[in-house]
Amino acid sequence: MKINELMQLIDREIPLSKADSWDNVGLLIGDKESAITTIMTTLDCTLEVVEEAVQQQCNTIICHHPLIFSGIKNITNQGYGAVIQQLIKNSINLIALHTNLDAHPQGVSAMIADKLDLINQDILMPQLSAMAKLQLFVPESHVMQVKAALSEAGAGQIGDYSDCFFQLEGTGQFKPDASAHPYTGEVGKLEIVDEIKLECVFEPRLRRQVEAALIASHPYEEPAYDIYEFLVKDMFGTGIKAELKQPVQIGNWLKEVKSKLKVDTVRLIGSPDQEIRTVGIIGGAGMDYVPAVRQSGVDVFLTGDIKYHEAHDLLMNGLPAVDIQHYAESVVKEGLKSLLESFDLDVPVISSTVDTNPFKAY
Ligand SMILES: [Zn+2]
């Protein structure tokens, strides 16, 4: 498998377009034509991780946190430049899957929920995507022709189903003006016609080709149709809400959280005696999403990077929370390996064993 084939597959399954606009995902360093030997997954790409890849004869690293983020002014043998140099020297490809992986239903927050054996998982804040609906009116003689043309243009696709239409019989009427060239009827005379009302959906990006197909396949000089856009819940989104198999006192549960997420400390904001069942999770730094987490009604919020005054705000507002550390995202090493393997790649995938947590507890 070549890198460009892997990138196409990734873009289909974990679309790069789902990443936040400020992010930097995709192939950051590498050769699109190179053949992949082994893929190594990691949370961060450090020098130690590159060394491990070399030892494991692995020429492709997929990291969660982009090594190249913004404004790199020089690449020397120090700091991040040294990592970039080592990757290039050793012909190692580096791919970053960051907020696009966060947005995936099996993304990092879901991987944390899996580690904690949580059930009934659902996206906490689903993304909304635009869809377009077309309704048109066509004489019965041309229904199949119009449907075929619309399908060909990409309309009528719902998930894994193509050629999805709904139709209803009715009566249309029109009076052609002097300059008209009507398909049926006469100038200046009211024409009553049996027509079919046809409905289908399509992605708004296809609008131009769908309209062109409709006009080309419809027998009327002026086909009557309406297109309107609406928002639908996407399968992608931010965070996960899930449930514990049975209610627990939060203080009793935290030891388990710590060991399952392999972090040295977790910090509770709230009473250890509170009984909880529903859990909201945003891997990494999730404090920007507190209003949505509160609205979701979960009993406790798990995230990382909670600052002192943010913790006070949470206490004041009565939302129990646990700082599980940003490094809880290291579940991505195993989780991404499993996700990639589920895509039936024909190359081996391994997880880095390097601990890249910059914080060490004493
Ligand atoms: Zn992160």
Give an account of the 3D structure:
This protein is of the alpha/beta class and 362 residues long. It folds into 3 domains: 3-101, 3-Layer(aba) Sandwich (Udp-n-acetylmuramoylalanyl-d-glutamate--2,6- Diaminopimelate Ligase, Chain: A, domain 1), CATH 3.40.1390.30; 108-126 and 238-328, NIF3 (NGG1p interacting factor 3)-like (Udp-n-acetylmuramoylalanyl-d-glutamate--2,6- Diaminopimelate Ligase, Chain: A, domain 1), CATH 3.40.1390.30; 127-233, Alpha-Beta Plaits (2-Layer Sandwich), CATH 3.30.70.120. Helix content is 28%, strand content 30%. It has helices spanning 3-13, 47-55, 79-89, 99-102, 108-115, 143-152, 207-217, 250-261, 290-296, 308-317, 332-341, and strands at residues 26-29, 39-42, 60-63, 93-96, 119-139, 166-174, 191-202, 225-249, 267-269, 275-285, 300-304, 321-323, 349-351. The strands form 2 sheets. It has an 8-stranded mixed sheet with strand order 6-7-5-8-10-11-12-9, sandwiched between helices. It has a 5-stranded mixed sheet with strand order 1-4-3-2-13, sandwiched between helices. α6 runs antiparallel to α7. The longest helix is centred in the last third of the chain and has 12 residues, at 250-261. 33% of the residues are buried. The mean pLDDT is 96. Zinc ion binds next to loops.
